[in-house]
Amino acid sequence: MKEGWKYFRLEDIELSDLGNGFFGNNVVEMDGFELTFVTGDKGSGHDFHRHEDLSEILIFLEGGCEFTVGETDLGIRGGSLLFIPPGIDHKVHYNKKSKILRIKMPHEGLKGTHDKTTY
Fold this sequence. Notes:
mainly beta
């Protein structure tokens, strides 16, 4: 049997263990799938970019940021989830030190639909 499973408790991971500044540590990386813990230092972020063939799920565990998806500005805080399908421009600016779980995966083969939902 092929081993490769991992177990961890999110509450046990310190921000300092998640990487430095904006970039994080990949926990799992295989066949186009990437699971990364990211820290966003206050004042850091990145300009608009897009992923042509990847969907991205961002689970904001702690902190806060201003996130722009397409032309929509979002004030995001810990406890939020953001799904970004391929081809959508997005950028982020962290206004607090933040902890994020980022999942990137090939969009091809994903089933279901996604709607623009506003709360």
